[in-house]
Amino acid sequence: MGISLDCLRDKNLMQLKKLNIALFPVRYNDKYYADALSSGDFTKLAYYSDICVGAIACRLERKEGGSIRVYIMTLGVLAPYTGLGIGTKLLNHVLDFSAKQNISEIYLHVQTNNDEAIAFYKKFGFEITETIENYYTNISPPDCYVLSKLLPVPAAKK
């Protein structure tokens, strides 16, 4: 009984949609899914004994100066499967893959009352860098923290 990760493709996009409905209090628009599909290996579905139980969905963003950063749009695991290392495997995949792509920053938004998620990301070296009031509509509290992690970028070869 292992955990496996799979790329997001058109044929399994519905699995991500179903997971998001089960996991999150907000509904995601078509742009979210288009960004997830276009991020390539940065978005992964997690399977536990061939059942889709979690996912990480990312978007690549170009910063001023041309560098790329990764925005984690969502990371979630269905409740019966939490504590099995699935979220850790998903996040580690994105951290490792980002480092291999010479990406220097990963960031995300977390609702200010989501202590479990904040503690999870802090274990991986993310830090709260900003608080945004009224970021979310239709959920309470509406405020979020921005959590960021800077990745060491390998020195340019001489």
TrEMBL record:
Ranges where the N-acetyltransferase domain occurs: 3-152
InterPro entries: Acyl_CoA_acyltransferase, GNAT_dom, N-term/lysine_N-AcTrnsfr
One GO CC term on file: NatA complex
Keywords for this protein: Acyltransferase, Transferase
Domain of life: Eukaryota
A GO molecular-function descriptor: N-acetyltransferase activity
Entry keyword annotation includes Transferase: yes
GO BP annotation list: mitotic sister chromatid cohesion
Alphabetized SUPFAM superfamilies for the sequence: Acyl-CoA N-acyltransferases (Nat)
Keyword Acyltransferase among UniProt keywords: yes
Descriptive protein name: N-acetyltransferase domain-containing protein
